Please model this.
Amino acid sequence: MLIDQHHRIHDYLRISLTDNCNLRCFYCMPNEDYHFMPHQQLMQPDEILKIAKTFVDLGVKKIRLTGGEPLVRKDAAEIIQSLGTLGVDLSITTNGTRVELFLDQLQAAGIKSINISLDTLQREKFQLITGRDLFHKVHDNIAALMQRGFKIKLNVVVVKGLNEQEILEFVSLTKDQPITVRFIEFMPFDGNKWNSDKLVTWQEMLQQIENKHLLTPIVTSVNDTSKYYAVDGHQGNLAFITTMSAPFCSTCNRIRLTADGKIKNCLFSESESDLLGTLRSGGDLTQLIRGAIWDKHAALGGQFSKEFEKIDANSLHNRSMIAIGG
Model:
C-alpha cells in the first residue's frame, strides 16, 4: 500500500508512453517546434512492464496510459498487450486520431473505457486549436469505438474566448448517446500562456447549462476528480474537473509516471524521482516509490494556493503538459 504523510492511499497510476504527439494543442505543447525526447531516453516496453508490476505489487489497482499521444509510439500495441496481463483496470487517454489502428489490441487487453480529448465540435476551430485538419478522423473514430462497445468520455478543456460558447453543443451530444462529457478547467503549465482571465470556472459552466437543462448530481467514488451530473432526458451525463476553482487534493489517489520514467506525485509537483535511472542501475524501486509518495504535498504540488486569481503562472516550476502526461 502506498500512503503519503497526509494519510491518502495511492492506487491509481498514470503512465505516459511518450511526450510525442501528432497534434499541437497550445495548452499542452509550448510551440510547434517542440523537441521530443530521444527514444533511448524513454522507458522501453520491458521497463514499463517491470515498473508497472512493482506498482501493482504495492497496491495499484488502476493504470491509465497517456502521452503526448500514446498511440503514436511504434510499440504501443506491444505495451498495451503486456500491461493487459497485470489484472488491473487498464484504460487510455488519446486524441482519437489513430485508435482505428488499435481496436483489436485495446479490446484484447481488456480496456473498456477510453478518454478522448476533444475541445471543439467545429472543424475549423479544431484545426485552429490543434494545428491539424483531423476533426472528421476523430469524429469517425469515436463512432467506431462506440460500435465496439467502449465506454467513451470526452475531455473538453474550456478556455474563455475560445470554446466556452460550445458548452451547450457538447451537452447535446449526451442526449441520444451514452457518453460522458467532462469539462476541464484550463490549468497552468510551462509555456501555455495561462492566466486567470482565460479560466472558465465550473460554476460558470454549470450555470450556463442549468439555464437550459435540469441537472442532478451523481454520487461517485471518493477519489473521483470529477463532479458528475445526470441531464434530465439524456442517455449520457456530464462532469466537471475543477482543479483551479475547487481543488480535490484531499482525496487524491493518483501517481504519474512520465515517459522518461520519473515519478511525479502530483500534476503540479516541482520535484521528481528517477525510477527509470534506478531500474537501469539495479537500484531499489520500492523504496524510491514509497519515498516519493510519502513526500507528496497536501495540495497543488505545494506551488500555489487555491486562490487562482493570485497565481503567477511564470513563477511555477513544472514541465509542459505534454512532457508530464495527461
Notes: The chain has one domain: 2-324.
